[in-house]
Design a protein that fits this description.
The complex is a heterodimer of chains A (575) and B (287). By secondary structure, chain A is α/β, with parallel strands linked by helices. In chain A, α4 runs antiparallel to α7. Chain B is an alpha/beta fold and 287 residues long. Helices cover 32% and strands 16% of the residues of chain B. Chain B is built from ten helices and eight strands. Chain B has an eight-stranded mixed β-sheet with strand order 2-1-3-4-6-5-8-7, with helices on both faces. The chains are: A alpha/beta (575), B alpha/beta (287). At the A-B interface, β7, α9, α11, α12 and α13 of A face β2, α2, α4 and α10 of B. β15 of chain A pairs parallel with β2 of chain B, so a sheet runs across the interface.
Chain lengths: 575, 287
C-alpha cells in the first residue's frame, strides 16, 4: 500500500466511526495510550450524539512526529464500525483516505469507497473469538500493527488493561488484539521507516491526559477538598475524576439533588474553611447563578468549572461551543468582582485550576474555569506536570474575640475567619450587612460595603495572567483567540507560514490584562476566532479596550474548528 | 449554662410584637444552654423570611444564605467540620416551598444536623400569601378563592422518607418544645422539628387558641421507633399530634458515609494538605 500521510507527511489521522455502545471509546483509550507508550505524539478528540446506544459517533486519533493538539478534517485512515458510518464522515473522506472495513457489516459503504477500501473481516474474527464484542479490540490491534508497535508490547498492555477480569476474558482480548495486529502489520509496510522516525525519545515517558483530568489534577493541586455537582455533559468528567480520588486525597465529592444545592453546598463548605468547587455546564450553571451572587455578597471563595456546550436551553448536549462567556461574566445579580480563566493547553488547565483556588481564597470571590466539550474530551501527551510547584496558599486567619467578618480595610479584603478556628464568631449574610454580617439598611454603610467589594478588583488586576503572543513580535496581522481554540489556531498558523501574522491567546478572559490594548494597537489588522455566533470575547475586548475587532471567524454548528477550516478562513481574509 | 451567652444585647428585632418567633428564639436559647453548646461551637444556618432572621438575634456563628437554601450549606458545613453543631432554621415557605427539594434529599443524605422549621402556615415577609402548609380554604389576597392545594404534611413526608428523627413542637409551650429541641440536637442524624407558631399579622385562622384546640401531645403509648404508627399519627387531621413521632437512630450519617473521619478526626478545613507526593504519583499513573 503506497500511503501518503498529511501534506507534509508528519502525522496521520485515524478516525473510528461507530454507534454509541459499540465501544469506540474503549478503542480510543487503548490506542492513545499504546501509541503514546510506543513513542508517538498523539492527540484524540471525539464528537458524539446525546444517546446511550445507536446513532453515529466518531473519534479522531492523530499520530504524529511532533506535539499536536488540534482537530483536523482530514482522515488518513478510517475504520467504520457500522452501516452509515461513511455517510457520517463523508465530507472528510478524500481520495487519499484509506478505509478499513468489514464487507459484511457495511456492504453499501464498501461500494461507495471503491478502491480505497481494504476489507478486514472484523465480524468473522470477532465471532470466532466469541462475539462481536471483540470487534473493537481487533480494530485496535489493526491500528497498532499498522503503526508498527511491537506485538509483545501490545499484548502485554491488553493483559494489564483487562486486569481484574477473568482469565478467559483476558485471553480472548489478547487473541483479538493479536489477530488485528497481524492484519495491520502488512498494511503500512511501505511506511515502516517513516513511522519509525516519528517515534521520539521521551514521549513514552510523558503523560497522557484529557481536559477533564487536567482540570481535576489542578483542583487537587489547588487544595480542593469539596466538590458538589449534578451530572451534566460535558462537565461530569471532572466530578468522576475527583470521585476516584476521594479517599486518597481526603476530599468530599457529593452528587447534589440539583445544581442549586450543589453551589450552595460549595459555599457552605467554603464558609467552614474547605476549598470548594462545582463543575457544571450551560443550564446547570444557569441554575447556580443565584449562588454565584451569594458568593459575591458573602465574599465566600468558590471555584466554578463551567464546561460549555451549545445552548440555548438544552441545545446540543454533547457538542461544543464557546458561548457562555457572557453568562459567566454577568452571572449573578448585583455587582461584585470575579475572575474568569479559559485554558487552551492541558498544562494551562492544570496550572489555572490550581491558581483558581488560591485566587478565590485570596480575594474571597468566585473564580471561573471556562472550558468546553472539545477541551474536556480531547487527549494529548504532555511532559510531566510539576506537582512540586503546587502550593496551597493560606489565607484563613485564626479569629480573636470581637472578630468582624466584614471589617472595612484599605484594599477591601477583610481577614477571613472560619467557624472552629479561634475565639471569634464568624457570620455571613446574603442581605446587605454591617461589618459583623448583620442585616443593615444604613444606606451610607451600604455604599461603603459596595465599594469595599468592588475595590478588590484593584488588587485582582495585579494577578492577571497576561495573554501569550506566538509568532514574530513584529506582526502586521494579529489573530486573537481564547480558551480551547489554542491548538487549532496555532497549527493553522504554522501551516499558513506567514511572517507578518501573529497569534495572541488569552487564557484569562476577565479581567483583561492591561497589555491587551497595546497588542491590538500594534496590528494593522486584527482577526478574532471564536466558537460562537456573536463574538462574545470580541465584545468584551471592545468593552475593556475600546478596540473593535471587525474581522471575525466564528463557528456555531456544535463542532470544534478544524485546522483546515481556520487556515482556509484566515486565507480568505488575509489573502 | 446561662442563656445570656447567646444574647445580642440591645438590638432592633424585625419581628412583629407578639410573633411566635420570639418564643422559638427563647426556646432555642434554653435548649442549647442546657446542652452546654457554646456560641463558638454552633453554626446557625438560615434562608430568607422572618423566621430566617433568627441568626441575627442569637450570638453565634451564622450563615444567613438564600431563600430556600439553608440545608445545602448546613450539610456542607457539617461535612467539612463535624465538630460543629449545625442547625438549619427557617420558615415553612423557605424549607418546604422554595427549598422543598433540598429538604427531601437532605433526609436521604442524613447529615447530622437539626432542621428547625417555623411553621405558621402563612408567608409573613411577603405579607400574607399562602404557604405550602396553609390549610385548605385559607383565603389570602392571592389565594382569593381560598387555598385549594393539598397542604404539605412535612411530618408524614419525613417519615415516608425514613428520616432519622421527626418531631413537632408548638411555640406556645416553652418547656415541652425545649425538651424536643434538646433531643433533636442531641440526636445523631438529620432531625426535623416542625414548630407550630401563630403569625399575628397575617394568619387570623391558626391562632394560639386554634393551636391549643387542635393539638395534643403524643404520650407513652406511642412508640417512636415504629415507623408505621408514626406515619399513622402523622396523618391525623382533626387534632394534630405534638412530640417525637419517629426516630431511626441506626442510620449512618452523611459524615460517616463519606468516610473521611474514620482515622482522622481533624476537620477537613484544618488538615495540613501535604499533597505533593500523592499528586506526583497520580500524575505518573497517567503515563
Amino acid at each position: 500500500m503506497n500511503m501518503q500521510f498529511a501534506p507534509d507527511n508528519s502525522d496521520a489521522s485515524v478516525v473510528l466511526c461507530g454507534q454509541a455502545g459499540q465501544g469506540i471509546q474503549t478503542v480510543e483509550r487503548i490506542l492513545v495510550r499504546l501509541l503514546k507508550l510506543a513513542g508517538f505524539n498523539v492527540f484524540a478528540t471525539k464528537e458524539y450524539m446525546s444517546r446511550v446506544r445507536g446513532g453515529s459517533n466518531s473519534t479522531e486519533i492523530r499520530v504524529a512526529s511532533h506535539g499536536i493538539s488540534a482537530f483536523v478534517d482530514r482522515i488518513d485512515i478510517l475504520i467504520p464500525f457500522h452501516k452509515g458510518a461513511l455517510n457520517h464522515v463523508r465530507k472528510r473522506i478524500s481520495p487519499q483516505t484509506l478505509i478499513l472495513g468489514d464487507e459484511e457489516i457495511i456492504p453499501e459503504d464498501f461500494q461507495v469507497a471503491e478502491n480505497r477500501f481494504i476489507p478486514v473481516p472484523f465480524a468473522q474474527i470477532a465471532s470466532e473469538l466469541g462475539g462481536k464484542i471483540f470487534v473493537n479490540i481487533v480494530a485496535a490491534g489493526v491500528v497498532t500493527g499498522m503503526f508498527q508497535v511491537e506485538q509483545s508490547f501490545v499484548v502485554d498492555f491488553i493483559r494489564k488493561f483487562f486486569a481484574g477480569k477473568s482469565g478467559e476474558v483476558i485471553q480472548k482480548n489478547k487473541d483479538a488484539i493479536q489477530k488485528g495486529w497481524e492484519i495491520g502489520r502488512e498494511l503500512l509496510d511501505s511506511q515502516k521507516s517513516r513511522l519509525e522516525s516519528w517515534k521520539k525519545q521521551g514521549v513514552s515517558e510523558q503523560i497522557l491526559l484529557n481536559g477533564a483530568e487536567a482540570v481535576g489534577l489542578g483542583a487537587l493541586a489547588g487544595g480542593c477538598d469539596f466538590l458538589a455537582s449534578y451530572p451534566m455533559s460535558p462537565s461530569t468528567g471532572v466530578m468522576v475524576f475527583l470521585s476516584q480520588q476521594m479517599n486518597e486525597f481526603g476530599l468530599v465529592v457529593e452528587q447534589a439533588e440539583d445544581e442549586i444545592s450543589a453551589v450552595n453546598m460549595a459555599l457552605g463548605a467554603s464558609y467552614a474553611g474547605g476549598r470548594a468547587m462545582v463543575t457544571t455546564s450551560g443550564g446547570g450553571f444557569a441554575l447556580m447563578t443565584e449562588g454565584i451572587s451569594l458568593a459575591g455578597m458573602t465574599e465566600t471563595p468558590v471555584v466554578i468549572h463551567l464546561a460549555q456546550r451549545p445552548g440555548p436551553a438544552t441545545g446540543l448536549p454533547t457538542r461544543t461551543e464557546q458561548a457562555d462567556l457572557e453568562l459567566a461574566l454577568y452571572s449573578g445579580h448585583g455587582e461584585f468582582p470575579r475572575i474568569i480563566f479559559a485554558p487552551g493547553r492541558l498544562e494551562d488547565a492544570f496550572l489555572l485550576s490550581q491558581k483558581a483556588f488560591n485566587l478565590a481564597d485570596k480575594y474571597q470571590i468566585p473564580v471561573f474555569i471556562l472550558t468546553d466539550q472539545y477541551f474536556m474530551d480531547s487527549y494529548s501527551n504532555l511532559p510531566l506536570l510539576d506537582a512540586s510547584s503546587t502550593k496551597t496558599e493560606k489565607f484563613i486567619v485564626e479569629t480573636k474575640k470581637g472578630y468582624r467578618r466584614y471589617e472595612l480595610t484599605e484594599d477591601g479584603i477583610s481577614p477571613r475567619g472560619i467557624p472552629g478556628l479561634g475565639e471569634g464568631l464568624v457570620g455571613v449574610d446574603s442581605d446587605e450587612h454591617d461589618s459583623e454580617a448583620h442585616i443593615t439598611e444604613d444606606l451610607e454603610l451600604r455604599k461603603r460595603m459596595v465599594e469595599k467589594r468592588l475595590k478588590k478588583l484593584e488588587s485582582i488586576r495585579k494577578d492577571i495572567v497576561p495573554p501569550e503572543l506566538f509568532g514574530s513580535g513584529d506582526y502586521r496581522i494579529l489573530v486573537v483567540g481564547w480558551g480551547s481554540t489554542y491548538g487549532v489556531i496555532r497549527e493553522a498558523l504554522e501551516k499558513l507560514v506567514r511572517e507578518d501574522v501573529a497569534f495572541l491567546h488569552f487564557k484569562q478572559v476577565y479581567p483583561l490584562h492591561e497589555k491587551t490594548r497595546d497588542y491590538l494597537g500594534k496590528a494593522d489588522k486584527t482577526i478574532i476566532i471564536e466558537n460562537n455566533a456573536t463574538s462574545q470575547f470580541g465584545r468584551l475586548i471592545k468593552l475593556s479596550t475600546g478596540v473593535n475587532i471587525e474581522a471575525r471567524i466564528l463557528k456555531y454548528n456544535g463542532l470544534a474548528f478544524s485546522v483546515e477550516e481556520v487556515r482556509a478562513r484566515l486565507k480568505e481574509i488575509i489573502g | 449554662m446561662d442563656t445570656h451567652i447567646y444574647d445580642m444585647g440591645d438590638i432592633d428585632i424585625a419581628w412583629c410584637p407578639g410573633c411566635g418567633n420570639y418564643s422559638i428564639l427563647m426556646i432555642l436559647k434554653l435548649a442549647l444552654a442546657e446542652l452546654d453548646i457554646k456560641p463558638h461551637e454552633l453554626v446557625l444556618v438560615s434562608g430568607i423570611g422572618q423566621a430566617a432572621k433568627i441568626p441575627h438575634y442569637f450570638r453565634t456563628h451564622f450563615f444567613n444564605g438564600l431563600h430556600g437554601r439553608a440545608i445545602p450549606p448546613a450539610t456542607a458545613i457539617k461535612a467539612v467540620n463535624p465538630g460543629l453543631t449545625v442547625i438549619a432554621e427557617s420558615g415553612d415557605g423557605d424549607m418546604y416551598g422554595e427549598g422543598g427539594n433540598h429538604f427531601i434529599h437532605a433526609i436521604r443524605r442524613n447529615p447530622d444536623i437539626t432542621n428547625i422549621v417555623h411553621n405558621n402556615m402563612v408567608y409573613g415577609l411577603t405579607k400574607g400569601q399562602a404557604s405550602p402548609t396553609s390549610q385548605l380554604g385559607f383565603r389570602t389576597p392571592v389565594q382569593v378563592k381560598g387555598v385549594f392545594l393539598e397542604p404539605l404534611n412535612p411530618i408524614a413526608l419525613a417519615i415516608a422518607l425514613d428520616a432519622s428523627f421527626v418531631a413537632r413542637a408548638y411555640a406556645g409551650d416553652i418547656e415541652q418544645s425545649k425538651e424536643i429541641i434538646k433531643e433533636a440536637v442531641s440526636h445523631k442524624g438529620f432531625a426535623l422539628v416542625d414548630v407550630f407558631h401563630p403569625c399575628v399579622s397575617f394568619n387570623k385562622v391558626n391562632t394560639h387558641s386554634w393551636f391549643k384546640e387542635h393539638t395534643y401531645y403524643l404520650d407513652d403509648s406511642h412508640d417512636p421507633l415504629s415507623r408505621l404508627s408514626a406515619f399513622q399519627k402523622a396523618t391525623e387531621k382533626e387534632r394534630l399530634p405534638l412530640g417525637i413521632f419517629y426516630k431511626n437512630p441506626e442510620k449512618p450519617t452523611f459524615e460517616e458515609n463519606i468516610g473521611l473521619y474514620k482515622k482522622d478526626k481533624t476537620p477537613l478545613s484544618l488538615r495540613e494538605k501535604k499533597r505533593g507526593e500523592k499528586l506526583m504519583s497520580l500524575i505518573l499513573s497517567k503515563k
